[in-house]
């Protein structure tokens, strides 16, 4: 499929939905962004304009490509004619399953329906979709327009055609991808999120403040931003949700969200998106 034949639907106008939409529009794809809340969509349109400017300044988008058309809607029915659907709602299995059930019943057979998830097994969500052979997962890292690699998760019932169709979309978005098996957290979150949880525990135990922890990871281990800045970028609420999924599905006590993380979420200090997390923004 040629790039100009892709029509993308993104479900959910939160941080990841906005980031994926920014990437797609910046690479010239028409996108319909769907959310049930019109006020959230209004904020998303403004945020996408800002992120497109930032991505352009950083050289993250092709210079010779006209931005794709952006439409917004509050009904899943607006996505019925999509060539691909990416769900990017909150990291809660029940919420994702409900959204996926609705959209998968509307799109044409053969349309790849994709859950962007950091931790929830794809085969678990596949029980909710109309055609499990058309369903698979991605894990775009934040912000999607700056990170060139995407983790693709193939479920037990995912068909070859769905994987190939998603690959075509990712190529049109200028992304590289690697396919992994379907286990809780897959590769990146299964390794990264417990490590972030441990870094938060180190701060709570007063071994070192966030600045020192991050500086040590940058200077000693070559980590680009450090674990606490990474947690703030992910969103502390999203991190807590992902850790809960991992803990419930693996039994790994290292995935039980640390109390300091829970306290920050309770206080509304969610990281970059709220202006305050382990750092002020």
Write up what this structure looks like:
The chain is of the alpha/beta class. It has 2 domains: 3-180, NAD(P)-binding Rossmann-like Domain (Rossmann fold), CATH 3.40.50; 188-274, N-(1-d-carboxylethyl)-l-norvaline Dehydrogenase, domain 2, CATH 1.10.1040. The chain is built from 10 helices and 8 strands. Strands 3-2-1-4-5-6-7-8 form an 8-stranded mixed beta sheet, with helices on both faces. The longest helix is centred in the first third of the chain and has 20 residues, at 38-57. It starts with 7 loop residues before the first strand and ends in a 15-residue tail after the last helix. Belongs to the 3-hydroxyacyl-CoA dehydrogenase family. One of its GO terms (biological process) is fatty acid metabolic process. Pfam families: 3HCDH (PF00725), 3HCDH_N (PF02737). This is 3-hydroxyacyl-CoA dehydrogenase.
User: Mean pLDDT across all residues, rounded?
Assistant: 96
- For CATH, the homologous superfamily of the largest domain is named as NAD(P)-binding Rossmann-like Domain
**How many structurally independent domains?**
2
CATH architecture of the largest domain: 3-Layer(aba) Sandwich
Structural class: alpha/beta
Named CATH topology of the largest domain: Rossmann fold
String of helices and strands: EHEHEEHEHEEHEHHHHH
With helices defined by DSSP (H or I, 4 residues minimum), what is the helix count?
A: 10
Main sheet: strands, sense, barrel? 8 strands, mixed
Helical content band: 40-55%
Q: Which strands sit side by side, in order, in the main sheet? A: 3-2-1-4-5-6-7-8
Straight-line N-to-C gap = 41 Å
What is the top-level CATH class of the largest domain? Alpha Beta
The gross shape turns out to be globular
- Which blocks of ≥5 consecutive residues have pLDDT under 50? none
InterPro entries: 3-OHacyl-CoA_DH (IPR022694), 3-OHacyl-CoA_DH_NAD-bd (IPR006176), 3HC_DH_C (IPR006108), 6-PGluconate_DH-like_C_sf (IPR008927), 6PGD_dom2 (IPR013328), NAD(P)-bd_dom_sf (IPR036291)
Pathway: Lipid metabolism; butanoate metabolism
Site (Important for catalytic activity): 139
Domain 3-hydroxyacyl-CoA dehydrogenase C-terminal: 185-281
